[in-house]
Amino acid sequence: MKKTLYLKFVLAYFIFGVFGFIIVTTFVPSMTREHLIREKAESLYYEATLIGNTYASGLYTNETSLETVKTQLDSLAVYLNSVIRIINPSGRLVLDTNTPIDVENVVVIENFDPTITSGSYYTIGDFFGSFNTDVLTVLAPITSNYMVKGYVAIHCDMQDIEESCNSLLNISYITLVILFLLSLIILIFFTEIVYIPLRKITHATEQYAAGNMHYEFQVDSEDEIGYLAACLNYMASEIARSEDDQKKFVANVSHDFRSPLTSIRGYLEAMKDGTISPDMYDKYLTIVLNETERLTKLTNSLLTLNNLNTKGMLLDRTDFDINQVIRSTAASFEGTCRRKNIAIEMVLTGDIMYVNADMGKIQQVLYNLLDNAIKFSHQNSIIKIETAEKKNKLFVSVKDTGIGIPKEDLKLIWDRFYKSDLSRGKDKKGTGLGLSIVKEIINAHGEHINVISTPGEGSEFIFSLPNSSKNDEED
After folding, report:
1. Domains defined along the chain, listed by start
2. Which reaction is the catalytic activity of this chain (predicted)?
3. Which residues contact 410 (CB under 8 A, 6 or more apart)?
4. What pLDDT band is residue 156 in, cutting at 50, 70 and 90?
C-alpha cells in the first residue's frame, strides 16, 4: 500500500485524461459536425419551403417577374450566406443568385435528379458537378394546381460548416484541458489530505509492529482520517503504558519476592554454617516464618488480582446485611487494635441494612480498608466506620486519623505495588496490592470508590453498594 496505492491513483488520473482525449477527438467531432449539418439543413429547408410557396410560385403563375424574384432572392442569399437556385424538373436553371439573369443562354444541370434527397431533406456533395467543392443542399418543391413546377435549391458551402464545427471543437478541447487541470487539483488535494496522512499512519503502524510503542505522529485533520490517527496514537500510548506497567509489575514482583527469599536464605545459611548459635534458632526461625507468611500473602494477593481481572468474572450476588459484615470484619482486628490501643467506632444506618453484592468480596474490601487504616493509624487513635443511605445506594466510609496520603499520590494508590514515601517505613510487610484488589472488586460490582486524605490528619475511603429490595420488605 505504501507505494502502489498512490501510483494507482496517478495511473487512474492519466487513464482518465487519455480516455477523455480519445472520446473528445473520436466521437465529439463527428457528433458536432452532424448536429451542425442537421441544424443548418433544417433552417435552409424552412427557407426553401417558404420561397417555394411565395416568390417561386408567383414566378410560375406570372404574378411576379423574374427580375423581382431575383432581387429578393439575392438579398436572402446574402443573409443566408448561401446560393439559391430555382430549377425546372428537367434540370434547366431558371434562376441563380450567383449569376445574373441570362434568358438567351440556357443552363442545364446534367443528370439532375430531384430524388437525390429521398429519405431526407438534404444532401452533401457537388450537386451533379455544378460546384467545385462540397455543398450542403436542400430541395423544396414549387407546386401549382397540385403539380410540381420546379424546385428551390439552397446550397451552403460545407467549408463554413466545417469552420463552425472547428470553433465548437476548440471549445470542447479547452474544456477538456480545464477538466484535466481540475482533476490534477483534485489529485493534489488527495495527496495532501488523504495520501500523506495515510502514509504517516502506515509508517506509525510499522513502528508499532516493530515494538516501538512510544512512536508519536500527528495528523492535522478533523475528518475520519484524523480520528483514525488519534485512535491509533491513543491505542499505542495505552499499549505502551500497559507494557510499562507490565515491566514495573514484573520488577515489583521480583523485588517483593527477592527480599524475603534473600532474608530466608541468609538466615538459613547462617544457621547452617554456625554463624547463628543454636540458642538463637527460635528467634530467627520466627523471622523466617514471618517472611514465608509474607510470600504467601503476596502470592494470594496476586492470585486474587488475576481472578478479578479475568474477563467475564462472575459475582456471587446475594442480599445480605452489610451491618453484620462490618461488625464481624471489625471484630477480626480486635487483637491488633488492643496492641495499638485503637478504637473502632461504628455509626451504622439501622440495625439491619441489606445490600445486593458478593458478600465474600465485599468482606475482603472491608478487611483491606480496615487493615490499612489500622496499619497507618497512630497509637491511641480512633477509626470510624459509617454508612449512609442515598438514592437506593448505601455508602460505606472507613476513616482514620493516621499519617494521610500526599495529594500527588492520591491517583497512584490504586496501582499495583504502589507505596507512598510516607508509608514505606510503616508498611514493611505490605504488598502494595490491597487497594488494587479493593478497586477491582468495587469496579466489578459496577460501583465507585473514592478517597479523601490530608497528610498528617488521616484518610477516608468511601465506596457505594446497591440497596436490596429486602429493605422495603423489612419496613
Report:
1. 4-163 (3.30.450.20), 224-309 (1.10.287.130), 317-474 (3.30.565.10)
2. ATP + protein L-histidine = ADP + protein N-phospho-L-histidine
3. 451, 453
4. very high
